[in-house]
Task: structure prediction
Amino acid sequence: MLKLKSPYEIKELQLCLEASETARPCISVCDGSGCKASGADNVIKSLRAELDKRGLQGTIDLKSTGCHGFCEKGPVMIVWPEKVFYNGVSLSDAKDIVNSVSNGHKPVERLLYKDPATGERILHEHDVPFYARQQRILFGNNGKLDPKDIRDYIKVGGYSALGKALTDFSPEQVVEAVKRSGLRGRGGAGFPTGVKWEALRNSAVRPRYIVCNADEGDPGAFMDRSLLEGNPHSVIEGIIIGAYALEAKEAYVYVRAEYPLAVEHLTVAIQQAEKAGLLGDNILGSKMSFRIHLVQGAGAFVCGEETALLASIEGRVGEPHPRPPYPVQKGLWGKPTVINNVKTWASVPVIINKGADWYASIGTERSKGTMVFSLVGKINNTGLVEVPMGITLREMIYEIGGGIPKGKKLKAIQIGGPSGGCIPASMIDLPIDYEALTQAGSMMGSGGMVVMDEDTCMVDVARYFMEFLEEESCGKCFPCREGTQQMKGILNRIAQGKGEESDLELLDDAGWMIKETSLCGLGQTAPNPVLSTLRYFRDEYEAHIRDKKCPAKVCRELIVYQIDETICDGCHACVRVCASEAILGEKDKAHEIESAKCIKCGACLEVCQPKAVLVH
Amino acid sequence: MPTLTINGIEVQVEKGTTVLEAARFLGIPIPTLCHDDGLVPYGACRLCLVEVSNGRKQTLQASCCLPAEDGLKVLTHSARVERARRLLVEMYVAVCPSSKRIQDMASAMGVRQVRYQAKHETCIQCGLCVRTCEQQMMAGAIGFSGRGLNRSVSRPFDMTSELCRQCGACLYVCPVCESRCQGPQAESTLCNGCLNISTVCFQSYDNAMCFLEPCHACEIGGPFRADVQVKPRSKDFTRIGEK
Result:
């Protein structure tokens, strides 16, 4: 690719690429992490083989793209230009798909999405209820482009925002636009991005650094990962615009080493941007010089905290240090540094292109724009969703998420990663914005959303998250290191039925203390899962302590498995699966569980056809 | 020169002074475990927390790391600070009950029970030894290894480092290795103050004299106060802090 020498050449190249686009159909298969896990790689291989076999390589294009978001139904694909949306594609479907594309595009009926409510097949992606309520300004392009090809990104209007910023905006105006857009940090704390940038611009110290925080460590969250894997250039473009506004010469992208595909795509994207003259010296013929370096994290959750992240980039132990001084005053190697999340950087080109006022028109009064959530847990439509701020949890779960599987009842929603809080089903009309979530005892976090149904024990949930945080606490400050251990110990005790009434007060006290006194964001939010479940599900804790019962029948020490003799037909199915040989009884006679041997694994419950296994 | 208000007293300090230094300059005692005047502030023990109001928000911040800035309003002993410190010290006692300094802090702050499970550790990871070795002795022979649960002060590859001159500075600065007085029930989590346990500490204790300095608990309530009458041991007495 030729080096671009001025902002106008981006526009020219885009027009060229658009003009060269033929009417050739294109099958774009999602090859994001979710679909990869459901076998997208093999589907692509078999599609390619099918095209080769028929000699159709030149007439039908095949593209592997980033995450489309609908991971539940993976592997998913879109056939352009008709935009036919297929889901749940398997190896054997390759033939039919190629057939339909080559013979007049009659869609393959059985691969179309079936609306569970009406039973109708839906042809286009944007008509699928999962997508219909979303506003995908960051993720919308994922399905259109090959993340390893910069030309694809330029074709959909990529890097035009950079061109616009360089020609029409002064650095101050870029900062002003970001400020006016109301964009807030998407990493969790929600600090206004424009204010942060302005604070950096007020510092006279040089050099200045830019850091992109891609150390996404929350269990069940994969938003940053999917963006980096699916559209790395959008993040790079945002960073370059940031560099122009902040007059920085160097940026660091801190990515988890556990994201090999993101690292690969980002590395390729940076190389391509350098070749195209978008990075390096004299960017687009201007006087601006800027480079992006990639740093891989070594797998510590705490390194997502900005001061720990900086320490890690510098090669020191990834432990946070107290703020002030804030990174904008004294950051990387003691120099002013702006740190923003992947999604924050990716929002910048959108703001420049479509205008700050347009961006500010989305969302609520104090939370603007869109937020990306990874919707997981007990929900029908697992996947990545991008919604305008202010959408209610009800819309999120029942309209986009398609409700709870197996007709179960919603119990709680845990938002904001491991240190977010659990919001009860009764507060389902809560709008999703920074303030409302904080007030409800949870937080926006980086956008993890775990849905729980009636089979979930809240004490167990709190225990699980406490265990995660206990392991991931860096251990530098006392309350976080020891407090998480103590709280986990108490929760363990309660879950085992050894809890005492006073334990609840102790959990409250310890939680308050850890929250108030910890050094960094990890400790200051660590008690959230416990405090929020104590606030909304106190009766469940009390049942564990007073009655020694687990209402959701999850805590192993508090439940007993039994076989109802009147129902059991003596089929022996449970006897065969019981690993601890705890089930006695002859064939065709009622069986019995020997409780001393039973390890409460639940295997018998699953295989029993007449539902004779009972849990107390 | 920044001017700040500490507990309502206006004080002007030099630029670069921390709030802790400013408060101590005024004679306000703020407890610390990881602070030393000769070392770079670390902010790990969290005991020096103060309530800072900066415009709208009021937060607790470690005063040892907080630079004194113009217009800062600091409260060193507000109810919120006191509660946080007391709960913190309660946890410190549970983690390291053998330390005199921690027991003394607990008595001084009126901690009357320890509800956590005792861990009987000997190190609170304040980092004083590590920092002294590195910043004062210019050796860097010890450091932290591991993370979270497994974090501990250790030597490279668990061998004595060539850099170690065996100067003993690390021993000298350790805030918690001074043992509490070994009176009766020295194994209890919280030092009870000898008064509570009935007979006096040092004379009747196993025919051996306790040579350690009396713990604060003994000093305020124990045999070292002549004006307090010693209570006879009662049968139904249960040790405070133990279930």
Notes: The mean pLDDT of chain A is 91. The longest strand of chain A covers residues 370-377. The longest helix of chain A spans residues 478-495. The radius of gyration of chain A is 27 Å.
